[in-house]
Amino acid sequence: MTAARLIINEIKGYHRFLKFLMALVGLGALASLVRFVFGLGATTNLNDTYPWGLWISFDVVTAVPLAAGAFTLGAITHCFHIKKLEPLVRPAIVTGFLGYSLVSVGLLLDLGQPQRCWHTMVFWNPHSPMFEVSMCIMAYTTVLFLEFLSPVCERFGYHLPLRILRTLEMPLVVAAASISTLHQSSLGTFFLIAVDKLHSLWYNPLLPLLFWISAIFSGLSIIILEATMTHKWLGQEDESELLETLARIIPWVIGVYILIKAYALFFLSHGPFFDRPGMVALFAVETIAGVFVPFFMFMRKKVRTDNRLRAIAAGLLIFGLVLNRFNVSMYGMIHDGQVYIPSLVETLVTVGIIAAEILFFVLIAKYFPIFEHHPETVDYSIPDHFRKIEKEHGEHGKVGSEA
Amino acid sequence: MSSATNDYSKTRAFLIDTTKCTGCRGCQVACKQWNQLKAEETSFFSGEGYQNPPSMSEHTFTRVKFKDYQKNGQNEFAFYKEMCMHCNEPACASVCPVGAFRKTAEGPVVYDAKRCIGCRFCMVACPFGVPKYEWSKAFPLVKKCTGCFSRLKAGLEPACATACPTAITYGSRAEMLKEAEKRIAARPDRYVKVVYGKEEAGGTSVLYLTHQPLDELGFKQVTKRSLPSYTWQALRLVPGIFLTVGGSLSLLSWFTHRKDRLKKEEEQRQASSHKAKEENQ
Fold this sequence. Notes:
By secondary structure, chain A is an all-alpha fold.
């Protein structure tokens, strides 16, 4: 009783925006309940012409690259050893862990037989990109969970698991990067089977590679956007110097993306490009507003050093990515005549999932040492000698009490 | 998915001569009866022309499409029996994450409802738009033509082929291909000189002969390559990429961290020796 009252009092103290988010999450949960009671056919606008809709296009195909910040930044910080970026890693891991957990929720809602989801682990079909992706998502969510456990253990002062997690840190970073490489690209492989269905502006054999590269730059953009917003609204530290470093990396990645996309478009694509004006318009918006404009913006020092402009460029890049994933998985699929517009239930669920991502992020940031993680207070190096861990103990106690 | 190694000439195949089809739709009825499928409430002209129901669905595994055309100023009909093509290398079987689809040695591509998780990837992948979903159910599964695998096992021919009075011939794929070529050679004016299904999607177990150009009849333009090969050319790289990325990142971090570790140890050694010196003094 008192515990419940404590929780209620705690929630009462939350900002209005958080309460609004909670309402959205509640609505989404209600909508998913409706989906299970009445079935996919009755509650969604999916049909035999559009077997995949908003839930696959956004909750899976788009959400996965949006959660790519964790593996990208992990690899850059730890493998390439750009140590100063460390304060950004934990928020990225939290975003990634939440993102992937919610991808799993979206995927389960979309399955006709969600109670059989364990079948993928039993009946293997290595020829299926879906099998590949679902195995990777399960593995990677576990990795992210383990990485996420670090701040949790610090919060509660569990030193023994912390020691194990510290030992596992580098293997986890490497595993995260390699697993992510596989499933980010395999999401592109999904659409390689749609040979005569996907419009030739998007269909080419390099789709998996393009998906992977665009996941990298959009993951970094999300980190920029997120850090700018948490600085502005959550009163967290200004990391603009670090974001500037990321902004210097991004145009290189976009450059490679543009080169490969151009090569794939001019040398590996078959079929007409300009037969459907709608497709050309979508492609133009995606490529110009979502790739070239942020590319040239990030190339300018003025943009990289200005908080607002940098966030705008990152936002454009994310817009381009979202549009690209929708083009590949929904708009670009050639269907005769029929139009698909997501139903109310589909929309509410997706909005609820986005709200949940933001809500949980803010709450986790509120209660766990996500932003306090600075290399000057915590020793990051692999504990290869026992005494180093001993040394760490004292410092963790300090961090815990601060939080 | 190796197309070169597998020989499909002995699998059973349908030869559907659309020029001989009378549009009686006996095949549709036979299919419904054998598979115990529900009737659909439909109305005439709900789809294109006289065809009914308007499309294949969870309750309709095959249906005859009607095509109006003019010949010597006369209105004529052309018919096209739509059904699962039972591809030699089926896209549905390759994309299914739980391997619910299987190309049998007898020819039909069969579906194991007990494995299916309902992800609908087969529907996205199928170039012919064959697998259909039980949209009417809360926990839907996929439905499609079974090629009457259970009848084959019992030594019978598929229900539609048995019911058809004129157009469907059933036998080994090699024989059916030979028969098709023979008919085209014997009556060149009667047929378009293409056997649809011979090479489409890497070859199928349903072969069509037509009088009309294929696209006019509503046949989908489909690649000649087997569909699984498109995804496999990327997926086969998965283990290699995993090892390459994992290996190179491990190596890279070992080097980048090594410098750091050495530096730190050096500092510590110096500090301790310094301390020791101080103590000695």
